[in-house]
């Protein structure tokens, strides 16, 4: 039960109003939890879907109202109190109390930390100039969209991960001149094999993106507002606006300051419990020993992970504790390409290409000691669905047989 004080208090307080936080509140009510629930969010918005920000919303294909995870009436009907536009600045585990950025104090019985992360910022000179953007929140996108409406056309995207690539695809569609810079030798280098990287590099270049790999940024230049990006070789790219997509920093400082174990995120066990009593953590900010990466402690940044961990926590709170063991999956939409990924390719020792990338429908399978551990499927739903089942089976497969895309994956017999 919440601490017995005169402060505001709730049986469950969820910090973070993104996918994980929303799903935790939903799942608690679905599991029959009748206690009081409050959700604290830094943004003024009700919980909304994040992936469309760099896709349909940015491209003006979806209005913001269509991104709400649930309408306002739902949260009122389910008696979920929303404390929005505020952040948690301190956690007092012994007193079971939170301090908010507006000075309020909120007590909790059980705390669920679902804060995700903040965009990683550039550290070079000029990083704080106007016109330098992240793509993490509605406000980020609205500001950038306003600048494009105002005439910004030369856009430099720093970072060749999914956020940067998705933003480049939409900007190109909007008629902008896009230069994408990746410091490593290929895009998606941390999450995909070279076959997929080469495919997306070609796609973006074919669509007019000036995509450069192995490029280091020296600084951003401008007076008050960015107007150029200076590279390490001394050359300068004109820039009406800059998008920085170089990852996130887990938003866990108050928990770590309160004594929670962690570093790159907050450490949790297989039920998403932190080292502090009655405090759980889920989603992008939670580091756990992943069964699908041979027990490596890691964070998984995906909607699937946030939602499934939220359900895991709701079950634990309502007395139906089950360990978290969901298979990770992801997706990315760029141009008319739909990428679907199942599993984690970390530690793979072989990749197998299924199909011809030139057809724009193919898959890359990732093996580790002969076991299928992940698959990337581009415009290939059958390979994704069937490959996912084989990954869940921890199937040992023949690389030579896998390479024959004329044979459906469902016909492969695990060794």
From TrEMBL:
Q: Which Pfam family, giving just one, matches this sequence?
A: Pyr_redox_2
Listed under GO cellular component are: cytoplasm
Going by the UniProt record, its keywords in alphabetical order are: Dioxygenase, FAD, Flavoprotein, Oxidoreductase
Under which name does UniProt file this protein?
3-phenylpropionate/trans-cinnamate dioxygenase ferredoxin reductase subunit
Q: Which positions fall inside the FAD/NAD(P)-binding domain?
A: 10-310
Name the InterPro entries for this protein. FAD-oxidoreductase/Apoptosis, FAD/NAD-bd_sf, FAD/NAD-binding_dom, FAD/NAD-linked_Rdtase_dimer_sf, Reductase_C
- Known EC number(s)? 1.18.1.3
Query: Which superkingdom?
Result: Bacteria
MF (Gene Ontology): dioxygenase activity; ferredoxin-NAD+ reductase activity; oxidoreductase activity, acting on NAD(P)H
Give start and end of each Reductase C-terminal domain. Answer: 329-411
PANTHER family recorded for this chain? APOPTOSIS-INDUCING FACTOR 1, RIESKE DOMAIN-CONTAINING PROTEIN-RELATED
- NAD among the record's keywords? no
> Which top EC class applies here?
oxidoreductase
Name any cofactors this protein relies on: FAD
